[in-house]
Design a protein that fits this description.
- This protein is mainly α and 285 residues long.
- It folds into 3 domains: 96 residues, Serine Threonine Protein Phosphatase 5, Tetratricopeptide repeat, CATH 1.25.40.10; 58 residues, no CATH class; 88 residues.
- It contains 16 helices and no strands.
- The radius of gyration is 20 Å and the shape is globular.
């Protein structure tokens, strides 16, 4: 539902390099190292810069993004925490730490950061779909519904947004009410999003979702992603209907198909862990 990655670091680097009149900054040199595939060298450049200037929140954020994209969420949280010490009113530092905390299963802490990020930046609010997912797991269904309704304004044809909105309404008011207010979608071309939307509307079937995913063409990655989303949302669908066994089966398949660093892959793992925990309450995630 949103894109982050090395792309963000490289774009940041291009912006920095636009100021040709000054010597290359540590971020400039780190970006150059990343472009050359020298991750360790880039990490060392930023770490040395932090030793020289530990009060630069931008450097803490830069290193946190590198840690995150290498799979080190714990290290990213530590760096973002230090960055927030230096820039406590940065919405984006709070937002990024919230995402990393969610990945680590730290739901209470993640929600605190997501809420703070929204408080600090009204511009961020409609884009903060990750907060909506965390609100769902925190059983703050009314707040989650509002978050997904806000996201609709900037992303009106996202089936995933419609589904998470449905889930929040279903937990609070029941599936019949959720179907009545299901956000209409006209053009989400990702496979099998059309079939997923029809399923949640009550007009489609689980078999149609699976068949569409199986028929996905293109490279192996496209098919893997289609099957991942099919099993993720079939898992969520069966869970909200109280079919715990089917929900776990689909979510297990989704986790097996998930890309290691993808946020929605972390969502699949988070949900499955809650369903399989000894103290799991299957009436709510």
């Amino acid at each position: 539902m949103a894109l982050r990655g090395w792309f963000m670091i490289l774009v940041f680097g291009v912006v920095l390099q636009a100021e040709d009149a000054r010597p290359p900054s540590p971020q400039d040199r780190a970006v150059a190292a990343l472009k050359a595939g020298r991750y360790t060298n880039a990490f060392t450049i930023i770490s040395d810069a932090l030793k020289a200037d530990p009060k630069d929140a931008r450097l803490w954020n830069f290193r946190a993004q590198m840690r995150s994209l290498s799979g080190d969420s714990s290290g990213a949280i530590a760096d973002l925490t230090e960055g927030i010490r230096q820039a406590p009113d940065s919405a984006f530092l709070h937002q990024d730490r919230a995402v990393e905390r969610f990945k680590q299963g730290q739901l209470t802490e993640a929600l605190s950061d997501f809420d703070r990020a929204n408080e600090l930046s009204a511009q961020l609010v409609p884009y903060n779909w990750q907060r909506g997912i965390a609100l769902y797991y925190g059983r703050r269904y009314a707040d989650g519904r509002k978050q997904f309704e806000a996201h609709r304004a900037v992303n009106p044809n996202d089936v995933e947004n419609a589904v998470w909105h449905f889930l929040c309404v279903a937990r609070a008011e029941g599936t019949n009410s959720a179907r009545q207010v299901l956000i209409p979608i006209s053009s989400d071309e990702r496979i099998p999003m059309v079939e997923i939307h029809e399923l949640f509307s009550g007009e489609g079937t689980e078999d149609e979702v699976l068949e569409a995913a199986e028929e996905a063409t293109g490279e192996g990655e496209e098919k893997r992603q289609a099957k991942f989303y099919a099993h993720l949302y079939l898992g969520l669908y069966n869970d909200v209907l109280g079919r715990g066994t089917l929900a776990r089966e689909h979510l297990q398949k989704a986790v097996a198909l998930a890309a290691p660093k993808d946020f929605m892959g972390h969502v699949a793992r988070f949900h499955l862990n809650r369903l399989t925990a000894p103290s799991a309450n299957n009436s709510a995630p």
